[in-house]
Amino acid sequence: MKHLHSILLILLIFAAIAMPQERRIKAGDGIEIVVYGHQELSRVVTVSPQGTIDFPFMQNLPVDGLTIDKLREIIVAQLSRYLEEYPVVTLNFAKSNIININVMGMVKQPGIRQMQLYSNLQGAIAAAGGTTPGARVTEVQLMRGEPGKMAITKYDLKKFLLEGDLKHNPVLVEGDVIMVTSGEMLDNVKVLGEVRLPGMFEEYNSATVIDMLMRAGGPTANADIKKIRYISPARKKQAEYRLNLEEYLAASGTYPNPEVRAGDIIYVPKKPDSWRTYLPIISGLSSVVISIYYIFRIQNE
């Protein structure tokens, strides 16, 4: 009998070794959740470094060490409290760590971008080539499917880039849609006229009229730098200034150089044409008139 017990114990040990261990959820895993009949709830979620996931009606849900079946039971029980019918849910480990993000609007390469798990808002916009001139980076819209609706949250990328505010650079999830809207008059300064790169430029802290002129490539050879106009409709009382660039350069920093504000306009006019400019045209017209005169003269002889 003693030998029989030993044999049974050995068989149990071998059976335990041979039996595949069920995979446990750990940080970094991607979990595909499908709720049948509720496309807005179906998504791939990522287990955070703290071992939690975010899912509709379940924020910071601890899942580290759970099996897929156990997590499915928890999700079904929680959704049953909010959905009218009994939820049918399937869970699987995601086959890859790639999520699909749709980046739209004022970016250089709009469309679907495949991003790594834990990618953030700024990274997705960079993957789309960055923003184009006129983009409103202070109000980037992130659209995410929530139960029965599409939730829209606005983020200020300028605060993240200038101040490092991580609240404005959220981590993305599968199916997120990013919309970068236009804000020409609200977020940019227009530099027009005789500059090398006329267009709209993003206003930044403490930027002056001269700074924005340099961002536009500086004046062209035809620019009348003595009569630069600066219009600021963004101020409480609309203001217009004249700037003489020659006097500014000669004044060694004492000449007024106002700070620009979003919505301002800088215009560099063209030099007035002198009468010498038209000499080649006049000469050419004279030749044409003389030729016509001789043609008529020959015909009448």
Explained architecture:
This protein starts with a helix and ends with a helix. The protein folds into 3 domains: 21-93, wza like domain (wza like fold); 98-182, Outer membrane lipoprotein wza domain like (Outer membrane lipoprotein wza fold like), CATH 3.10.560.10; 183-301, Outer membrane lipoprotein wza domain like (Outer membrane lipoprotein wza fold like), CATH 3.10.560.10. The chain has helices at 2-18, 68-79, 121-127, 157-163, 184-187, 209-215, 245-250, 279-300; strands at 30-35, 43-46, 52-55, 58-62, 89-93, 98-105, 111-116, 140-146, 149-155, 177-180, 188-193, 199-202, 228-232, 239-243, 265-268. Strand 13 and strand 14 (239-243) form a beta hairpin. The model is unreliable at 13-20 (pLDDT under 50). The strands form 4 sheets. The chain has a 5-stranded mixed sheet with strand order 7-6-10-8-9, covered by helices on one side. The longest helix is centred in the last third of the chain and has 22 residues, at 279-300. The chain is 27% helix and 27% strand. The protein is built from 8 helices and 15 strands. With 301 residues, the chain is α+β, with helices and mostly antiparallel strands.
Count the DSSP helices: 8
Rg measurement, Å: 34 Å
Could you give the order of strands across the largest sheet?
A: 7-6-10-8-9
Measured distance between first and last alpha carbons: 145 Å
| Shape field | elongated
* Overall tally of domains: 3
The CATH H-level superfamily of the largest domain is Outer membrane lipoprotein wza domain like
CATH topology name of the largest domain: Outer membrane lipoprotein wza fold like
